Amino acid sequence: MIITDVEALLLRQPGALDTTIADGSQDALIVRVTTDTGIAGIGEVDSNPTVSHKTACGLRSLLIGEDPADIPRLWQRMYRGSLYYGRRGAAVHAISGIDIALWDIAGQVAGKPIHALLGGSRRDRVRAYASTLMPEKPADVGRVVEEQVENGFRAVKLGWGPLGQDADLDVALVAAARAALGDEHDLMLDIGKGWVGQADAIDRANRLADFRPYWIEEPFMPDDYPSYRALSEAIAIPVAAGEEESTLLDFERLIDSGGVSVVQPDVTRAGGITETMRIAEMAFKRGKRPVLHAWSTGIIKAASLHVLAALERAEYFEYCVQTTELNQRLVAEKFPVVDGYVEIPQRPGLGIELDTEVLELCLVREAR
Ligand code: MG
Question: Separation of 132 CA from ligand 1 center, angstroms?
Answer without folding.
Answer: 10
